[in-house]
Amino acid sequence: MSQARPVQVIAVSGGKGGVGKSNISVNLSLALAQLRRRVVLMDADLGLANVDVLLGLTPTHTLADVLAGTHTLSEVLVSGPGGIKIVPAASGLQRMAHLSEAEHAGLITAFSELSHQLDVLIIDTAAGISDAVVSFARAANEVLVVVCDEPSSITDAYALIKLLNKEYDIQRFRVVANMTRTSTEGQLLFNKLAGVCERFLDVALQYVGSVPFDESVRKAVQRQQPLIEYAPHSKAAQAIRLLADKVDNWPLPAGPSGRLEFFVERLLQVTAPEY
Fold first, then answer.
1. Which of 14, 67, 69, 90 could form a Cys-Cys staple with 19, CB 3.0–4.6 A?
2. pLDDT tens digits, residue range 150-201?
3. Under CATH, domain 2-270 is a member of which superfamily?
């Protein structure tokens, strides 16, 4: 039964803004839902939340209400297209480092209760390499790094990978190239990033494909619809479905690391202040 499956927690990051990370997060979530996976998408861009904007949603409650104890996590979840659920971004997450023990326990309990309702948790992190981005990436089972053909994209992706590897011993990263102009461009971008990483870091990078530049993406954003639904036969939508097939075959975390509450415990450990 799918309910017995561990929860796959995937942090989608990119190092820099403008690489299409949120679009990848949203549409990958829908593509996985089409594979009959129960998906929750967490908007972890605390400063510039945009998942709700991309999908035309107006959430009335956020994770901040869960921290305040006024609502359960199930109550703040927003139903999105394709059967996915969304945890709206909350500025309340910025005070995670200052939660009381009771609030810690409450948040862990909230997520553990949610674990029976999902197979995959996708975290759309913020741009850059802020503490929050590092916290979510470190606590997740998988880090999916989005790169594009801009000079700063590879540099910033490398900076993120270097930080997570050197400071937190994360060694496995999945890489997807976005907005590529040709079929070979994505592989060349990956080769460039992998070449630098292999010289200076002890990491294993896996190329998981590319999503071509597609005018349908811009039109879908304007209409506040996910690309997968707005233009299901577009080249970009087809590429994202191929990516979802690969993600669906990634090994599931075994033991305690497969429990959703374990993810929250690690997240809280990362954000806890050091004395």
1. 14
2. 889 999 999 999 999 999 999 999 999 999 999 899 999 999 999 999 999 9
3. P-loop containing nucleotide triphosphate hydrolases (3.40.50.300)
